[in-house]
Design a protein that fits this description.
The complex is a heterodimer. By secondary structure, chain A is mainly alpha-helical. Chain A has one domain. Chain A contains six helices and no strands. Chain A is elongated. Chain B has one domain. Classes of the chains: A mainly alpha, B mainly alpha.
Chain lengths: 138, 307
C-alpha cells in the first residue's frame, strides 16, 4: 500500500494541477481508511479471541478513561511489541486520525508547487491547529 | 429512563440488556455478544445515515448512551473516531469525481479546526448532563432543518467580492458531462457558521455535517453537491483535531471503538451503494422521527441527570 502511495505522489510531482491534487488526495483517503480498518479489524478479532468468556468492560461510568499505557506513545509501542490486541486497535485508530492530517499536508505541498502563497499559509495554519489538538497537554 | 414520550428507545434498551441478563448484570453478557450487538447497532446507524445523507454519527451517541448505557464521554470518543472513518471514506469518492473544492475546504477548516479545539476544551469542563441536553437540542434542530429542506425559498444574494480574491470560485461537473462555474456568497457568514460547526463537533463528538452543509449551501450559496462533497471532505479534518484531545483525555475506549467504527463504516459503505435504488423520502421521514425522539430522550435524561 505504501508503494501505491509513493507512485501516486511521484506522478503528482510531474504535473500537479488541481485535478491531479484531487486524485492524490482521493487515493490517500482511501488507503488511510482501508489500512486503518484492516488494523482495527485484526486487533478487534485478537481482542475478542484473547478474552474468552470475559464480560464487556463497564463503560457506564467514566473513571479516568483509557489506560495510560495506550495513550503514551512509548508505552503503546511497548504493548504493541508484546502482541497486545488493544494496542493494535489503538494503532489502527491512530492511522485513522493521521489520514486527515496527511490530507492537509499533501494539499499544502500541492499549494507550494502551485506557488499559491496564500493557501500555503492557510494550510500551515490548519496543520498547526491540528498539531495543537494532538500534542498540547491540558 | 422510561419517559413516556420515547419509551420505545428505553424498550429497545431493556430488550438488549434482557439478552445479557439485564442492565445491572452487565457482566453476565459475554464480550463477544456485546461487541456483536454494538456492531449491528452501529451498522444500522451507518446504513440509515448514508441512505438519508445525514451521516450515521448523529445517532451514534444517543444509541450508545440510551440503549447501551455507555458514559457520554466514551460514546463521544467512539462516535468521533467513526465519523473520521465514514467521512474520509465517502470524501475519497467525491474528491475523485471533482465535487469537493480543496480550497474552500482548506479555507473553512481554519474556522472548523479552531472551533474543534475550543469545543473539545469545553467538553472537558461541562458536566455530562449538560452535554446531553445540548446534544438533544442539536438533534431536534437538525431534524427540523432536514424537514425544512424540501421547501426552501430562493432569493438572490450578491456574490462576495472576496470570492475571486480568495480563489474560492471554482468549477464542478454539471451532471451532463460538462462543467459548471460557481462563485461564493457571504464568506464571513459561512466562516462564522463553520466555527460553530467545529465547536459542536469537538463538544459533542459528532461530524456536524448538517451545519457544514447548511453553511455552504444556504449561506455561501454553493451548488448542493459541492456543499455536501466539501462538507464530507472537511469533517475528517475537524474530527481529527478534537480526536487528538479526546485521545489524550482517555475518551476513546478501544473495546468500544472497534465494533462501533467497523459497524458504522460497513453500514455507510453499503448505504452508499443502495442510495440510488431506494426511495429516500420515506427513509428520510423515518430518520427525522428517530432523531427527534432521540433528541427528546437526551434532553429528558440530561435534565434528570441520568446520563
Amino acid at each position: 500500500m505504501k508503494s501505491v502511495l509513493t507512485i501516486t505522489l511521484g506522478k503528482a510531482m510531474l504535473r500537479l494541477d488541481d485535478r491531479r491534487m484531487q486524485l492524490v488526495l482521493s487515493r490517500l483517503l482511501q488507503v488511510g481508511v482501508l489500512s486503518a480498518s484492516v488494523v482495527v479489524l485484526v486487533g478487534g478479532v485478537m481482542y475478542l479471541v484473547g478474552h474468552p468468556g470475559a464480560g464487556p468492560a463497564d463503560l457506564r461510568v467514566f473513571t479516568g478513561g483509557t489506560p495510560m499505557s495506550l495513550r503514551e506513545p512509548g508505552l503503546l509501542v511497548h504493548r504493541l511489541m508484546a502482541g497486545d490486541a488493544a494496542a493494535l486497535i489503538q494503532v489502527g485508530i491512530l492511522i485513522l486520525i493521521a489520514t486527515p492530517i496527511l490530507r492537509v499536508v499533501f494539499a499544502t505541498i500541492g499549494f507550494v508547487r502551485e506557488r499559491d502563497r496564500l493557501y500555503v499559509a492557510i494550510g500551515l495554519f490548519v496543520l498547526g491547529v491540528m498539531m495543537l489538538g494532538l500534542f498540547k497537554s491540558g | 429512563m422510561g419517559h413516556p414520550l420515547v419509551g420505545w428507545v428505553d424498550g429497545g434498551g431493556k430488550w438488549l440488556w434482557g439478552l445479557g441478563g439485564g442492565r445491572d448484570r452487565m457482566a453476565g453478557m459475554s464480550l463477544v455478544l456485546f461487541s456483536a450487538l454494538l456492531f449491528v447497532g452501529s451498522f444500522g446507524a451507518g446504513l440509515l445515515g448514508a441512505l438519508t445523507g445525514l451521516g450515521g454519527g448523529v445517532v451514534l451517541v444517543p444509541l450508545l448512551t440510551l440503549v447501551f448505557h455507555v458514559d457520554m464521554r466514551f460514546a463521544m470518543g467512539a462516535s468521533l473516531i467513526s465519523v473520521i472513518a465514514t467521512s474520509s471514506g465517502s470524501a475519497a469518492a467525491y474528491v475523485r469525481e471533482g465535487f469537493s473544492s480543496i480550497r474552500i475546504g482548506m479555507f473553512l477548516e481554519v474556522a472548523t479546526t479552531v472551533g474543534a479545539i475550543f469545543g473539545a476544551f469545553l467538553a472537558g469542563k461541562v458536566p455530562t448532563r449538560t452535554l446531553a441536553i445540548i446534544f438533544g437540542v442539536v438533534l431536534i434542530y437538525s431534524a427540523w432543518l432536514t424537514w425544512q429542506h424540501s421547501r426552501r425559498a430562493e432569493e438572490a444574494v450578491p456574490v462576495d467580492p472576496w470570492s475571486d480574491k480568495l480563489r474560492l470560485s471554482g468549477r464542478c461537473p454539471d451532471g451532463q458531462g460538462g462543467e459548471q462555474n460557481y462563485t461564493v456568497c457571504n464568506i464571513g457568514g459561512g466562516f462564522g457558521m463553520m466555527a460553530v460547526a467545529g465547536t459542536l463537533s469537538g463538544l459533542l463528538g459528532i461530524g456536524s455535517g448538517a451545519v457544514k452543509v447548511l453553511a455552504m449551501d444556504r449561506v455561501m450559496r454553493l451548488p448542493f453537491k459541492v456543499s455536501t462533497a466539501t462538507s464530507n471532505f472537511m469533517i475528517g479534518v475537524t474530527a481529527a483535531t478534537s480526536a487528538g484531545v479526546y485521545l489524550r483525555r482517555g475518551y476513546v475506549d478501544v473495546g468500544l471503538a472497534f465494533p462501533v467504527m467497523l459497524g458504522v463504516l460497513a453500514g455507510s459503505v453499503l448505504g452508499a451503494r443502495f442510495l440510488v435504488k431506494t426511495r429516500v423520502k420515506v427513509l428520510r421521514n423515518i430518520f427525522i422521527l428517530v432523531i427527534s425522539a432521540m433528541g427528546v430522550e437526551m434532553v429528558v435524561n440530561g435534565w434528570l441527570g441520568k446520563l
